[in-house]
Amino acid sequence: MPEGDNDAALLARAFVALNDLAEPLGSLGAVFAAADRELYLVGGSVRDALLGRLSTDLDFTTDARPAEVQKLLRPWADGLWDTGIEFGTIGATRGNRRLEITTFRADTYDRVSRNPQVQFGDTLVDDLKRRDFTVNAMAVRITGAGIGEFVDPLGGLVALQHQILDTPSAPEVSFGDDPLRMLRAARFVSQLGFTVAPRVRTAMAEMAPEMSRITAERIAAELDKLILGADPVAGIDLMVQTGLGEEVLPEVGAMRMAIDEHHQHKDVYQHSLTVLRQAIDLENPGEPDLVLRWAALLHDIGKPPTRKHEGDGGVSFHHHEVVGAKMVRKRMRALKYSKQMVDDVSQLVYLHLRFHGYGDGKWTDSAVRRYVTDAGPLLPQLHKLVRADCTTRNKKRAARLQNNYGELEQRISALAAKEDLQRVRPDLDGNAIMELLDIPAGPQVGEAWRFLKELRLDRGPLDPDEAEAELLSWWAAKGNREGQSSV
């Protein structure tokens, strides 16, 4: 199809998507037109309309200053907020739509932080030139009648057709203004399936150390969007290949360990990317799982520091799951993730190798209970991670691993039908322990509780008489050892 025909097809798709918003866009355009102000739909909203994936969040730009925007929106919107007013942005809601309207900007940057010295501009073109990528630098005029002309002074439509990310100005200038744009490039590669222009890739490789200017929280937010994209492997590989990963997630690139002819082992980096792909394939449709994806990517980061060349020419990675879990905690804490997120991802990394001790169904019921208890609410994700980790090229071994894990899942289900495996607790609670042993609340109660929980894990549910007898026997033996009188 000729390029002009592609233009027409993309624009037609965009206007179909935007016409579904005829009422809110038309009425909003009328408000600004009555005040003799310009209003444009801009940025990601235009890009997504062209791609046929317009969301309920819309971005606009205008020549009106923030205080005037507030005044114009107040009778039109259902709700307003001004948390971005220092950057010229006023937020509003109308029905189920969220929108942000930002005054034309012509910012300058100090090249020390990524925070601009905000300057309001006078023209749409100058506002578009300061944006991150040309595909995000297109606009559609909004009038009282609704959709007006399409504005594309920087070739964003052609870049969109060819699925190329390029910067409006020289990438060295754009990334020097805001280094986070380099990570945004990797994120858009993941989300949109685009590639970066050669000059953008070169600039990323040369300017990766500039990421030190960006706060951990902003980096983590971009990484999460990348991980949740349609093709996170492509985004991650771009980071690693350009050196950006060395600045924000060095443990991933470190898995590219040298493999020589005398010590053959699988490429841990490529293996981890494969596990990530396979974990995504196991997700519930339409429900991307951020914890699972992070765990799949990071599950083997403990291998490089635990690698050991064995005398038989093989390579071992003893306890890499333990080391890896600690590394996950350190990196995710540095990126300021929540305690829950750190705990969940590190626990999955810690547990991902345990199944390989299952062998051919040799685990006792006690071992199965401990597996479920240690996984807790993460068990469904652990199931997916372990299955995704079966990447051996030996088809028979792969099939045996998958069959063994299927058998383990069946055993878990069978035990769960008889016991509450998700809440394995002692058969006696704290009050019963204190009454039976005639002791007050304190450390001894906790010690007795832990003994009963271990007993419960080993033997399954006990009736009250049996639990009491076991506790009294343990207490007597403990008293004898420590010179205490038993009950």
From TrEMBL:
Any single GO molecular-function term of the entry would be: CCA tRNA nucleotidyltransferase activity
What PROSITE patterns does the annotation carry?
HD
**UniProt cross-references to InterPro entries, sorted A to Z:** Bact_CCA-adding_enz_type3_sf (IPR050264), HD/PDEase_dom (IPR003607), HD_domain (IPR006674), HDIG_dom (IPR006675), NT_sf (IPR043519), PolA_pol_head_dom (IPR002646), PolyA_RNA-bd (IPR032828), tRNA_adenylyltransferase (IPR014065)
Q: Name the SUPFAM superfamilies for this protein.
A: Nucleotidyltransferase, Poly A polymerase C-terminal region-like
Q: What is its EC number?
A: 2.7.7.72
Q: Which cofactor does it need?
A: Mg(2+)
Principal EC category: transferase
Could you tell me the keywords of this UniProt record?
A: Magnesium, Metal-binding, Nucleotide-binding, Nucleotidyltransferase, Transferase, tRNA processing
Official protein name in the record: CCA tRNA nucleotidyltransferase
Q: Which residues form the HD domain?
A: 268-415
Q: Which Pfam families match?
A: HD, PolyA_pol, PolyA_pol_RNAbd
